[in-house]
Design a protein that fits this description.
The chain has 330 residues and is an all-alpha fold. 71% of the residues lie in helices and 0% in strands. Among the domains are: 88 residues; 82 residues, Serine Threonine Protein Phosphatase 5, Tetratricopeptide repeat (Alpha Horseshoe), CATH 1.25.40. The protein is built from 15 helices and no strands. The protein is elongated, with a radius of gyration of 36 Å. The mean pLDDT is 81. It comes from Cupriavidus basilensis OR16.
């Protein structure tokens, strides 16, 4: 009912405005009266047209209504008629909505050998409990103790964040867990260093250097070192890996390690060369290709990045790699 009254009022005001315009001539008063009447007519007709618009076109109100008002004001009578005609055409001849991107997807096959890797989101729940400072302290302590069963690479960043926690018990336990994991690896390094000095031949020296490189790398991989200690640990891992490869150059794992260390030093060309060497010696391609793509990206060789990731043919890529594959392979 309100829309009908507005429509009738708008049409009447529009006719009155056109009548004033026809009689205006050189009269300023009649011209001003026409503009006021035309503005009133445009306001009422625009409101009627706005009410007739589909719901998704009504927002934002200021823009949609303002456009209709301006059109009806600047194009007397014809503006409203064009809008009504457009609405009728859209109503009786609707456009076809595209259906691209919609299709049937089959159910994934059940892979039995991956069942042992399922964690059922335990890590996420533990992080949520530890991050909730309003939770009771015993519950947070229980969650913190339960993190000991998680891989150190996953738990170390969480424990490091807890070193600034407001609860003393949480801070102390988190520090103790981090310190314990670091000391465990450091003790093994201290055992191997004297053996390296007492090695009798190159073969024994190469084996010890390999173990030391692995231990130093484990400190980095488990996120147990930062800052200057991180740089020192990376240098030691590189030094012992290089020494081990001088004895036996066919150790793919050490070439892979050196490639990753080169990336941390922002040496992409060297990293690509060593990762390619690791792949030639039989290292898994699904692990070397993402790092080679990263190295190419750092060199701003985007064509190489795309070519490398297009050659990625692993049936089950890691979750962190899937978004990269979707982006660069599309």
């Amino acid at each position: 009912m309100a829309v009908g009254k507005l429509g009738i009022g708008g049409i009447a005001a529009q006719i009155a405005a056109l009548a004033l315009l026809a009689r205006a001539g050189h009269s300023t008063a009649l011209l001003l009266s026409f503009l006021l009447t035309q503005g009133l007519a445009a306001a009422m007709i625009a409101m009627v047209l706005w009410r007739l618009l589909p719901r998704r076109f009504r927002v934002p109100f200021a823009w949609s209504y303002g456009y209709l008002f301006a059109f009806c004001f600047l194009v007397p009578l014809a503006g409203g008629m064009i809008c009504v005609g457009s609405l009728l055409i859209a109503r009786f001849f609707p456009g076809r909505r595209p259906t691209a991107g919609i299709g049937l997807v089959g159910l994934p096959e059940f892979v039995t050998h991956l069942v042992s890797r399922v964690t059922h989101g335990g890590g996420a729940r533990l992080r949520a409990q530890l991050g909730n400072t309003r939770a009771p302290l015993p519950e947070r302590m229980t969650a913190l103790v339960a993190m000991q069963s998680m891989p150190a690479r996953t738990s170390s960043p969480v424990l490091r964040d807890l070193l600034a926690d407001s609860a003393d018990d949480v801070r102390l336990l988190a520090y103790g867990m981090l310190d314990g994991a670091e000391k465990q690896l450091t003790q093994k390094i201290l055992v191997e260093l004297p053996r390296l000095e007492d090695a009798q031949d190159d073969r024994e020296r190469g084996e010890i250097n390999k173990r030391l490189a692995d231990l130093y790398w484990e400190l980095i991989y488990q996120n147990l070192v930062q800052g200057d200690v991180y740089r020192y640990t990376a240098d030691q891992a590189e030094r012992h890996a290089r020494a081990a490869l001088e004895v036996d150059a066919d150790q793919a794992g050490l070439w892979y390690m050196r490639g990753r260390l080169a990336l941390t030093r922002h040496e992409p060309a060297q990293a690509r060369a060593w990762l390619e060497r690791a792949e030639q010696l039989g290292f898994a391609r699904e692990r070397t290709l993402p790092l080679m793509a990263e190295a190419a990206y750092l060199e701003r060789d985007y064509a190489a990045v795309r070519a490398i990731l297009l050659s990625f043919d692993s049936p089950s890529p890691l979750p962190l790699v899937r978004p990269l594959l979707r982006y660069w392979q599309s």
